[in-house]
Design a protein that fits this description.
The structure holds two protein chains of two kinds.
Chain A lengths: L8 H26 L4 E2 L3 E5 L1 H11 L5 E10 L4 E8 H12 L6 H26 L5 E2 L3 E6 L6 H4 L5 E10 L4 E10 H19 L1
Chain B lengths: L1 E5 L3 H14 L4 E5 L2 H11 L3 E4 L8 H11 L4 E6 L4 H10 L3 E4 L4 H10 L3
Parallel strand pairs in B: 1-2, 1-3, 3-4, 4-5
Helix pairs in contact in B: 2-3
Classes of the chains: A alpha+beta, B alpha/beta.
């Protein structure tokens, strides 16, 4: 049985603040891409198990819509999964906006969603890992259209025992584009993340 | 000299206080964990400078900035934010902030900021 890693209030505070900086950078990058002004939300950080994750997603993502769900793995001293969820309506708006056409085709929409996810994950994860003084490698993202909010598949549930859910929302209201971001990390990587935060706290209290 | 640091993150407050104390050891540092507390502590303490985060619970930095400037139009408010969009920066400058600095803040940057403020 895998030992649970406990995070103190200070650990969570550090992680939230680092994510806040990361989200700020990502929002600015997407604002440049969309030539628009976006709203940042305070990242929500939860330590959970797979059941809790499923419940969290059900409470966060509307069940009545279809969603483009893009998943990208990252690995190294800190590894995990970056998930970007956008409704099909917002994805079409994104395609409209990026390609400057009224009716973007499916390939354009996929391309736009993948591009947005790439920028989001690269900016957010790179900023986070830079603050934690480590480097990570990104893997090729994949996108699927999912009806409802069942984003975690049966085979994936076996891979997780303890999960950190970092969740935030990005809103570009005038363009009707908004999406949910989840960063999941698990088991040994949670310990690794805790050790990196401990180093950060040691620097602070030195 | 009193300096008010308003940020919901303890890490952000401690980092900023540590940097300021290294540069200005005699400053009295006051902390606020959200915009509402920042406004109350501004009223109670009349600090020379306010370092204000934007994304905070209960009352965000935009609203706190408006209230502080209403109380004292000459208040020296430095917005310290992770939101590096130019529009957000323009918005807080229009509300009366003296300057905007991106997070995380370095000692060198803080030195420049303190030199530009009037004490």
């Amino acid at each position: 049985m895998v030992k649970r890693v406990e995070f103190s209030g200070d650990h969570l505070d550090v992680l939230r603040e680092l994510m806040n900086i990361a989200v700020g950078n990502a929002t600015a990058s997407i604002a440049d891409l969309l030539k628009a002004f976006g709203t940042m939300h305070i990242p929500n950080i939860t330590i959970s198990d797979i059941k809790g994750l499923k419940q969290y997603i059900q409470e966060t993502i509307p069940s009545q819509s279809s969603h483009y769900v893009t998943k990208q793995l990252f690995g190294g001293p800190l590894g995990g999964e970056f998930i970007f969820v956008i409704t099909d309506e917002a994805a079409i708006n994104l395609g409209n906006h990026l390609y400057d056409v009224d009716a973007p085709n499916d390939a354009d929409i996929y391309d736009a969603v993948i591009e947005l996810t790439n920028i989001l994950s690269a900016t957010m994860i790179s900023r986070l890992t830079e603050e934690l003084n480590v480097k990570v490698q990104f893997f090729v993202p994949s996108t699927q259209i999912i009806k409802g909010n069942d984003l975690i598949y049966l085979e994936e549930t076996l891979l997780y025992s303890q999960i950190i859910i970092i969740s935030t929302q990005m809103e570009f209201q005038n363009q009707n584009i908004n999406g949910h971001i989840f960063i999941l990390t698990k088991d040994a990587m949670i310990q690794s993340l805790k050790d990196l935060i401990d180093q950060k706290l040691e620097e602070l209290y030195a | 000299m009193k300096i008010l640091v308003a940020d919901d993150s303890k890490l952000a407050r401690l980092s900023l206080i540590k940097i300021v104390k290294e540069l200005e050891p005699h400053c009295e540092m006051i902390e606020a964990e959200n915009g509402q507390v920042a406004v109350e502590k501004f009223q109670e303490n009349a600090p020379s400078v306010v370092f204000l985060d934007l994304t905070m619970p209960i009352m965000d930095g935009y609203e706190a900035l408006e209230k502080i400037i209403e109380m004292n139009p000459k208040a020296q408010v430095v917005v310290v934010t992770a939101d590096i969009q130019s529009q957000a920066q323009a918005q807080v400058m229009a509300l009366g902030a003296k300057m905007v600095i991106p997070k995380p803040i370095s000692s060198e940057k803080m030195q420049t900021v303190l030199q530009q403020l009037v004490f």
